[in-house]
Structures are given as structure tokens and as C-alpha cells.
């Protein structure tokens, strides 16, 4: 069997926007990670990046029209044989054509014949993205099961700034990888809004010092990325992680527990689920010194007085913005892991509690995790040692089953 037949087959559709150059980076990531990529640009995409670039980077022929190599029936075959179609960038015109089933070139024909997962990564000016015509087309595509990634906010072509940027190609690649791994499972969280917290809060003592913790935020980001790949609208409230914003995720950056609480309560107002993966400091310094605290010759340092931070998980569990909202907590335990987990689940009042054992080399900063997910209904779901995104998928499976 030729090598290419054993590789996942990806069609990279490129429509005519300035962000077409970023699709070269996506193409490289796809080919370098073992995918057989067929690039199908539109004629206007070739005004931005030429066919030789797509052909050389993909190792496959490139055509925009159905009239080339007609004996191979490309307008049907390319879509039929694909494991994933990703259109990046997807212009307003391309979204409109796809929503209405037009088929006037090779890419639009491919979209009609594909039976595999389809991902659109739109990129356009804010006005075009916000126009009701575009929003209606996006809603139609999502209703039919396509994953349409929300554009990023930032600098657009020219001097303007707003929503409409193509997300970082590395992050679009992450979405593609996850969608491919799910096969035909489809975006089961489409139409849902989920809130995820990640990272560790920092409670300032003075302008240069803080009380913090060792949470890396990787589990929270895995939850956010996984939910986005499953079609959810995701708000990620992150504290001090320094990790790049995932594609299609609305990221709110905070520093302290009080700021995190404010951001979570705001986002949770219309959320179907809230997952509190962040390590929130239980205490903060009672006083904040406006100037740097200086050591004094011959004197011992003054003790640091602490006050309690609000327990956000307990608060949102007790006072749900919606009666059917699913609330998930995390617990890091060093001893009597399950017994402590059960007690914490009852104390916090959440629906699910992900309990993991922590220690010097366990969990913090690692790419892997091992946990037990306890349910308020008495269920116990062990998740074996593995990538944090596998644990994330189990959490969303359990959330989805409770959303009904
Ligand atoms: N959490 C929260 N607000 C806090 C502290 C924690 O929302 N002020 C959330 C965390 O995001 C996590 C869960 O509560 O989902 C468990 O946090 P943990 O610190 O383990 O719980 P504690 O109540 O601090 O329990 P203990 O100190 O007994 O370990």
C-alpha cells in the first residue's frame, strides 16, 4: 500500500483572504505530523499565495477548477476520500457559498461531496463577520454539523483592530488534530456555552511579590481546547499561565482570586457548564503594601496576615445561574484521596469532582494526568494515566450526559 494511503487524508481549502499565507504554516504542521494533505485553493486564494507553494509544501497537485485531470473525477473524489476538510482562511464569500450549497469550483464541489468532519476557520474584517448575512450562514453551517471556529480578536489588514483575525495556525492545527481523533463523533457540544478556569491565582503582597501556587494551567487549557473542538462556545478564564490563546476560545486574563471570581460569575450567567480547573488561592494577604517591603537591619520580618478568599466553586454551585447548569470542581489531594474527594464534593456542592493525587512530581506542569471523577449521584469514573486531553474528554462526556 502506498505510504499516503495509510496517512489520514486532509483537504486544506484556502479561500481568497490576506490570511492565506498563514495557511502555509498550517499545511506544514499537517504534513510534518504525518497527514496526507491535498490543498484546494480558490482562484482568488492564488492571488495571495501561488500554486507552486501549495504544491511544493503538500507534495500533491493543486488545482482550483473541476476541469483539470477530469478522468480522475476530482470534483467528487477529493471530498469522498477525505478524513477531514479544513477551510482556512474561510472568507465571508466562502461561508455563504458553503451555506447555500453552491458548487462553482473545486473547493465548493469538495465541500458538497465530503462526508467527513468539516472545519471552517473564518477570517475577515469585523464588519463582514458581524453582518447578519455572515452570522446566518455560520449558524446554518453549525446546525449542519460543521465546526466554525470563532475568529480571533486583534490587528486586521491595515490599521484596524477587532474580531476577524485568523487564529494562530498552530492552534488551528490543534483543533484539526482533535477533530480527526474524534472521527465521526461530531461536535456534540454545539450550541452550548461552557466556562473553564485555568492556572493559578497570584495574591500580591507588594508590587513585586505574591503568594502563588504551582498550577501550570495545562489541564484547564486541555479542557478549553477539547470543548472548542467539540463545538462548544468556550470562555476560558485564565490566571498567570502564559499559554497561547486556543483557537476559537474567548480568553479572559485575570491575576487574583477576586478577579477570577468576578470573571467567572459574569461568564457563568448564561453557561451550560462551569469547570473550575484553576488552583484558586484560599487566602490572600490582608494588606497590600503600595511600596516594596524592605528588610530592616537587625529586625525579624513582620508576619504576613492572611484573609480568606471567596470559595468560587461553592458559590456557583449553591447559587446556579441556571437550574440545569452543570458545575465541575477539581481537587488535588495528597492523602486519603477518595475519602477526601467525596467529602469535598459534598462540601462544595458541585455535580462532578475530578480528584487527582498530587506530589512533588505528580500532575503539576506535566502533560499527563491520572484521576477519578466523582459524581454527586454516587458515580465514580477512573481515568487512567494519560494525556490531559483524554481526561478533558472524559469530563466533557460526563458533562454532556448530564446536560441531556
Ligand atoms: N476553588 C474555588 N475557590 C477557592 C478555592 C478553590 O473555586 N477559593 C475551587 C478550585 O478551582 C477547585 C476546587 O475548588 O475546583 C478545589 O479546591 P481546593 O483548594 O482543593 O479545595 P479546598 O476547599 O481548598 O480544600 P482543602 O483546603 O481542604 O484542600
Question: What structural category do the secondary elements indicate?
Answer: alpha/beta
* Total domain units: 2
- Ligands bound to this protein structure: cytidine-5'-triphosphate
Distance between the termini: 44 Å
CATH architecture of the largest domain: 3-Layer(aba) Sandwich
Shape: elongated
CATH superfamily of the largest domain: CoaB-like
Q: Strand order, main sheet: write it out.
A: 12-11-8-13-16-17-18-19
What does this entry look like structurally?
With 404 residues, this protein is of the alpha/beta class. The protein has 2 domains: 6-185, Rossmann fold; 193-403, Rossmann fold. It is 35% helix and 25% strand. It has 15 helices and 19 strands. Strands 12-11-8-13-16-17-18-19 form an 8-stranded mixed beta sheet, sandwiched between helices. The protein has a 5-stranded parallel beta sheet with strand order 2-1-3-4-5, sandwiched between helices. Strands 6-7 form a two-stranded antiparallel ribbon. Helix 2 (20-32) packs parallel to helix 4. The mean pLDDT is 94. Cytidine-5'-triphosphate binds at residues 257, 276, 278, 280, 282, 309, 311-313, 329-332, 344. Cytidine-5'-triphosphate (CTP) is lined by residues 257, 276, 278, 280, 282, 309, 311-313, 329-332, 344.
